[in-house]
Structure formats: structure tokens, C-alpha cells
């Protein structure tokens, strides 16, 4: 099975604070690579590559570059959706949804890679834990235009349930912004995945600083 090199931050990653997700569609004049660079400079320690419009080859090329940058910076790099790209660029992790290959099968293929699973209700969360996920996504917390076919979830109520009942790390997602991140924390949020609030920011560095002070 696939094995990452020994010195990777694998499994020792702490899911805490801002989890940055690329989204050049929601930025003006910045590519996914630009966004990743800015996130690294802003001190974000986990970056997910998420891209729904580009070809496999374009995504692969962007991921190759971001993999190099994240390795240099010691940033954890997780690829959304494409297990083949995650393996091809030696990402630290893969993030899958409920309609992707089954988690157990992904684990067989991906070996000790970090595997994150999007969940929207308690049954999905429990299944992700028993099938061996390393962390779960929890959301959508708030409604958002960033994702097409947005799933329904209990939002903050569901997050509270996860915080009390699930032992593996959880990452809140969906509509998280400077003005509501403190509320998410209050309802059990510990790690906050963000797309448009980062991609749309003039300066990601300033936005991350503002998000951190909102969390204090
Ligand atoms: N999954 C649930 S909500 C969402 C995803 C990928 C989109 C999050 O984007 P934003 O812009 O931070 O609301
Ligand atoms: Mg997906």
C-alpha cells in the first residue's frame, strides 16, 4: 500500500484554527496556487485543494506546485475529491464526500494517508469513525453559495452533537466568516474550514489575523 515518507506530518496534524481551502472561482485575479501561497504566508497550517471546474491535468499541475510549496513550508496538504491526484503528488491527505468511493476502499488504496470525510448528520459521522476516517467535515454550518447542491445538515446543532459525541477531530464548514466564527466556536467548533471568506479577501494575511482575533 501507499506509504508516505517518514518525516511527513502525517497523523500528527492538529486540526485547530483555520483550515484553508482553495477556490479561485471565488477570487478575483488569483489562482489556486496564489491562494495557497497567501495562505502559507498567513500561517495557515492545513490547506485543501478544492477545484470543481478544471481538467484533471490542470488540477494535477496546480497540485504539484502546491505540494512543493507546502512541503517547503511544513504545511499539511490535502486534496479534495481526486484520490489519483492525491497519490500522484504525494499529498498528506485526501478529502472525500458521501458520494465518493467508500471510505474503506479509499483506505485500502491510500494506506496511511490522512483521510477526511464530509458528514452532514450523526449517522454519517458514526460511520466515518467506524470506517477509519482521520477527521470529519461537519456542515454546512450556515447556508453558502460556494457549493452547488448543498447538503442539508443540522448546522450549529449538528456541530454541538459532534463536539460531544465524536472522538476524532472535526472541521466545521459552510458560510464561516469573520462575523460568525466566534459563534461557531461557541457551539463546539475547533477547526474552521473556509473558502470564500479567504478567496474573496483582498489580503488573506489580514483576513486570517481578523479571524484569529474574532476567536480570542
Ligand atoms: N461543504 C459544505 S459547505 C461548503 C463545502 C465545500 C462550502 C464552503 O465554502 P464557504 O465559502 O466557506 O462557505
Ligand atoms: Mg467531494
TrEMBL record:
Keyword Transport belongs to the record: no
An example Gene Ontology biological process: thiamine diphosphate biosynthetic process
Cofactor note: Binds 1 Mg(2+) ion per subunit.
E.C. designation(s): 2.5.1.3
Protein name in UniProt: Thiamine-phosphate synthase
Cofactor(s) this protein requires: Mg(2+)
Catalysed reaction, written as an equation: 2-[(2R,5Z)-2-carboxy-4-methylthiazol-5(2H)-ylidene]ethyl phosphate + 4-amino-2-methyl-5-(diphosphooxymethyl)pyrimidine + 2 H(+) = thiamine phosphate + CO2 + diphosphate; 2-(2-carboxy-4-methylthiazol-5-yl)ethyl phosphate + 4-amino-2-methyl-5-(diphosphooxymethyl)pyrimidine + 2 H(+) = thiamine phosphate + CO2 + diphosphate; 4-methyl-5-(2-phosphooxyethyl)-thiazole + 4-amino-2-methyl-5-(diphosphooxymethyl)pyrimidine + H(+) = thiamine phosphate + diphosphate
Group of enzyme by EC: transferase
Lineage: Bacteria, Bacillati, Bacillota, Clostridia, Neomoorellales
Residues binding 4-amino-2-methyl-5-(diphosphooxymethyl)pyrimidine: 48-52, 80, 118, 147
Keyword Zinc-finger attached: no
GO molecular function: magnesium ion binding; thiamine-phosphate diphosphorylase activity
The protein's annotated pathway: Cofactor biosynthesis; thiamine diphosphate biosynthesis; thiamine phosphate from 4-amino-2-methyl-5-diphosphomethylpyrimidine and 4-methyl-5-(2-phosphoethyl)-thiazole: step 1/1
Alphabetical keyword list: Magnesium, Metal-binding, Thiamine biosynthesis, Transferase
Domain Thiamine phosphate synthase/TenI: 18-197
Function: Condenses 4-methyl-5-(beta-hydroxyethyl)thiazole monophosphate (THZ-P) and 2-methyl-4-amino-5-hydroxymethyl pyrimidine pyrophosphate (HMP-PP) to form thiamine monophosphate (TMP).
Organism name: Metallumcola ferriviriculae
Shown part of the complete sequence: 124 to 339 of 339
Transmembrane spans: none
Protein residues bound to 2-[(2R,5Z)-2-carboxy-4-methylthiazol-5(2H)-ylidene]ethyl phosphate: 144-146, 175, 195-196
Similarity field: Belongs to the thiamine-phosphate synthase family.
GO cellular component, one term: cytoplasm
Residues that hold Mg(2+) according to the record: 81, 100
